[in-house]
């Protein structure tokens, strides 16, 4: 799936760029974006190392155990066959905690940690596992409790009530998550081979 | 308020760690070292994705697609001003914020389109980036239903943002 989108974006960019007279911008974007990717990776690396270190201290101190116990009743039905005392489950719970608190910068490193642990516990494979799909979906359609970024930009542009969107955001993000989970579960093709 | 969360969370971990006699410094560096290797393995996926997004944005394809699908969005009651935002949102977080800023400069944040744009920014995520980076750290090549399910969430988000603003905020 990703391969088609990747190829389509490059082809569309070349064709439309040439047709619209933007081809020199497309050319320089190609050369600059890969450098930006390295910059972003360095930025991510800092976060991943910091949160990975903190996670390990929290694990050794038994803190992640306590947080995992809070989520266990709900998440054990979603992530079937996953050891709820294992490192993958702990990392998943920490990632969800960070998402709920609106800490996007912490959620990504913790999410990557969880993906790595899931692969360790479920075995390396070229095909994704069901639990990986569900976890990724939880992050691409995560529930927002407080839309801080949107509200601050609204305030900056002179909104009379920057937070009035809160109920709409809550309803919208809950429904989006439900539709994603339903589709992920309906189209689950069972064991990977 | 959110400024308190991270420092106090970190302080709490240190206090509990010391109380449980954990060597907090060497455990921290050990965990950081493990993730250092993992972070490098994400780079190839990031380079592929960001190159594609950068070229796509520069080509003017965004305006072209917006124009092509405007009859459909008008039918669904989705504001025309928000179409570029809906297209860029799943692909690029920084791109979406730039488009959002443009919308708020053109129309009032308290107008229909301004509110819908705000709800979209508040309730959806950067789908492609998340999938590419999360799977980039694993050996997985076939992501199966992860992308369609995530895009369904984005689509639901776009439709409902217009619907909830119309019903709740009038």
Descriptive key words:
heterodimer; A: 193 residues; mainly alpha; 8 helices; 76% helix; globular; B: 170 residues
Q: Could you provide a short overview of the structure?
A:
Chain A has 193 residues and is mainly α. Helix content of chain A is 76%, strand content 0%. Chain B has one domain.
Question: How would you characterize this protein structure?
Answer:
The complex is a heterodimer of chains A (193) and B (170). The two termini of chain A are 18 Å apart. In chain A, helix 5 runs antiparallel to helix 6. With 193 residues, chain A is mostly helical. The longest helix of chain A has 38 residues. In chain B, helix 2 crosses helix 7 and helix 6 runs antiparallel to helix 8. Chain B has one domain. At the A-B interface, helix 1, helix 2, helix 5, helix 6 and helix 7 of A face helix 1, helix 2, helix 5, helix 6 and helix 7 of B.
Q: What integer is the average pLDDT of chain A?
A: 89
Shape of chain A: globular
Distance between the termini of chain B: 30 Å
Distinct helical segment count of chain A? 8
| Gap from first CA to last CA of chain A | 18 Å
Main beta-sheet strand count, sense and barrel state of chain B: none
Tell me the radius of gyration of chain A.
20 Å
Tally the structural domains of chain B.
Answer: 1
Please count the helical segments of chain B. 8
SSE succession of chain A: HHHHHHHH
Number of strands of chain A: 0
Number of spatially distinct domains of chain A:
1
Strand content of chain B: under 5%
Uncertain parts of chain B: none
Layout of strands and helices, then pairs:
The complex is a heterodimer of chains A (193) and B (170).
Chain A (H helix, E strand, L loop, with lengths): L1 H19 L2 H38 L2 H16 L8 H14 L3 H19 L7 H11 L7 H9 L9 H21 L7
Helix pairs in contact in A: 1-2, 2-5, 3-4, 4-5, 5-6, 6-8
Chain B lengths: L1 H18 L4 H36 L1 H16 L6 H6 L4 H14 L5 H12 L3 H10 L9 H23 L2
Helix pairs in contact in B: 2-7, 5-6, 6-8
């Amino acid at each position: 799936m990703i391969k088609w989108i990747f190829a389509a974006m490059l082809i569309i960019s070349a064709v439309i760029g040439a047709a619209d007279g933007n081809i020199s911008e497309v050319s320089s974007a190609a050369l600059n974006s890969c450098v930006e990717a390295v910059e972003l990776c360095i930025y991510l690396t800092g976060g991943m190392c910091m949160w990975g270190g903190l996670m390990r201290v929290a694990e050794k101190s038994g803190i992640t155990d306590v947080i995992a116990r809070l989520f266990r009743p709900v998440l054990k039905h979603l992530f079937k066959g996953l050891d709820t005392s294992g490192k993958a489950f702990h990392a998943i719970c920490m990632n969800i905690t960070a998402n709920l608190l609106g800490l996007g910068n912490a959620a990504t490193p913790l999410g990557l940690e969880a993906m790595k642990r899931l692969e360790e516990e479920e075995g390396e494979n070229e095909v994704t596992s069901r639990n990986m799909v569900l976890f990724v979906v939880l992050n691409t359609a995560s529930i927002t409790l407080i839309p801080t970024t949107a509200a601050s930009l609204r305030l900056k542009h002179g909104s009379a009530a920057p937070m009035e969107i809160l109920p709409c955001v809550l309803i919208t993000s809950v429904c989006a998550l439900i539709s994603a989970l339903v589709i992920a579960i309906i189209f689950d093709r069972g064991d990977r081979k | 308020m959110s400024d308190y969360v991270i420092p106090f969370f970190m302080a709490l971990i240190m206090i509990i760690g010391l109380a449980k006699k954990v060597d907090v410094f060497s455990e921290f560096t050990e965990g950081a070292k493990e993730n250092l290797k993992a972070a490098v393995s994400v780079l190839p996926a990031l380079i592929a994705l960001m190159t594609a997004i950068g070229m796509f944005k520069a080509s003017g394809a965004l305006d072209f697609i917006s124009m092509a699908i405007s009859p459909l969005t008008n039918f669904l009651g989705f504001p025309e001003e928000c179409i570029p935002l809906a297209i860029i949102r799943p692909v690029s977080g920084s791109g979406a914020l730039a488009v959002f800023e443009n919308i708020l400069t053109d129309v009032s944040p308290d107008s229909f389109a301004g509110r819908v744009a705000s709800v979209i920014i508040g309730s959806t995520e950067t789908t492609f980036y998340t999938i590419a980076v999360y799977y980039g750290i694993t050996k997985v090549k076939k992501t199966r239903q992860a992308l369609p399910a995530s895009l369904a969430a984005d689509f639901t988000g776009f439709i409902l943002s217009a619907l909830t603003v119309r019903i709740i905020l009038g």
